[in-house]
Amino acid sequence: MSDSPVNVTVTGAAGQIGYALLFRIASGQLLGANTPVKLRLLEIPQAVRAAEGTALELEDGAFPLLAGVDVFDDPKAAFSGTNVALLVGARPRTKGMERGDLLEANGGIFKPQGEAINAGAADDIKVLVVGNPANTNALIAQRHAPDVPADRFTAMTRLDHNRALSQLSRKLSVPVSQIRKLTIWGNHSATQYPDLFHAEVGGRNAAEAVNDEQWLADEFIPRVAKRGAEIIEVRGASSAASAASAAIDHVYDWVNGTAEGDWTSAAIVSDGSYGVPAGLISSFPVTSSGGSWQIVQGLDINEFSRARIDASVAELEEERQAVERLGLI
Ligand SMILES: NC(=O)c1ccc[n+]([C@@H]2O[C@H](COP(=O)([O-])OP(=O)(O)OC[C@H]3O[C@@H](n4cnc5c(N)ncnc54)[C@H](O)[C@@H]3O)[C@@H](O)[C@H]2O)c1
Ligand SMILES: O=C(O)C[C@H](O)C(=O)O
User: Fold this and answer.
1) Cα of 301 to ligand 2 centre, how many Å?
2) Cα(289)–Cα(273) distance, rounded to whole angstroms?
């Protein structure tokens, strides 16, 4: 076991995802079974008491790897010295709210959080944004942290990736462990593009194994892209434990590396690869090694995929322009 604990800040700690996430972090699933963690929970003042209640429960878990829990309502204090930041707390869309209103409300959250990360986080800070609209919230935070390398800011499309794995596994009646090289491109929204064309199932091309373009276009892609809405409809609340699980997967792979011969999906700052404008935080096929993500290069993008990637990237561009107009970046 390494000696010094890793500081992990979780925002929105009293929310649904926070509750599903914190106990898994405390048990060692975020960073590995040999890494002690110190949790730093950030909430708005009205929810601090509930976060303190969760902190009591974390204490009651007697987790051997948990070196302490602190609760904050001030971002500067919560991010001071932090190594891993999970930005989960966000303003949900409520009735009558337009997309612009949502972006503006979230700007009020992610701008000060980016500034606080810039001011006081540890040099090796890694940031995962979960709160929606995740890609653009990550962009806002990143732009307000000019002293932090841009590649430390990421947004979560791992839940979409996991959803796509499960849907394909059901269709082909194979375990998810046999599926490799699946990709989510673009935005964590209904425009995202889950791409099977480079995926492999038991060593065989997945699109060929499926051999059903209608299923691909009319069932698989919309099912994955609209799964968040389906969960809300059926469960009566947005996904929480599956989102927490995907956040664990994302950070675990970022820190510990992806498996040889496979890749995963994460929204990271574009370097212009695959025609995605540089600077946008967009989902790509990625591998991780040495604590950093690399975009998988050299994939052939067919016409079917190109149109769908472009549509999702266009939406990200619109969101970027909207937050620029609002003066948020
Ligand atoms: N990227 C993804 O795949 C994905 C998946 C599921 C949900 N989400 C998003 O994750 C977010 C959280 O979901 P949830 O179900 O936990 O919501 P929730 O409403 O249960 O919890 C959100 C928590 O954030 C807190 N919060 C609000 N503003 C804050 C701030 N400025 N600082 C710290 N905390 C703050 C709230 O007090 C609340 O406790 C939502 O935006 C949701 O849409 C993303
Ligand atoms: O909260 C939502 O709007 C849905 C969420 O992003 C999800 O993908 O489950």
Assistant:
1) 27
2) 19
For 141, phi and psi rounded to 5 degrees?
-60, -45
Task: Determine if ligand 1 sits within 6 Å of the CB of residue 21.
Answer: no
CA 153 to chain centre: 10
**Ligand 2 pocket residue status of 159, Cβ below 6 Å:** yes
ipTM surpasses 0.90: yes
Task: Name the token pair of 319.
Answer: 């969101």
8 A C-beta contact, residue 263 and residue 164:
no
Q: What is the DSSP string of 123-144?
A: TT-EEEE-SSSHHHHHHHHHHT
Predicted confidence (pLDDT) at residue 1 exceeds the cutoff of 60: no
The residues, ordered by sequence, that sit 6+ positions from 238 with a Cβ below 8 Å of its Cβ are: 16, 92, 228, 231, 232
The verdict on whether residue 163 carries a ligand-binding annotation is: yes
Residue 125 to residue 122: CA distance in whole angstroms:
5
Q: Assess whether the C-beta atom of 41 lies below 6 angstroms from ligand 1.
A: no
Task: Express each pLDDT in 182-214 by its tens digit.
Answer: 999 999 999 999 999 999 999 899 999 999 999
pLDDT, tens digit (0-9, with 9 covering 90-100), for 130-188? 999 999 999 999 999 999 999 999 999 999 999 999 999 999 999 999 999 999 999 99
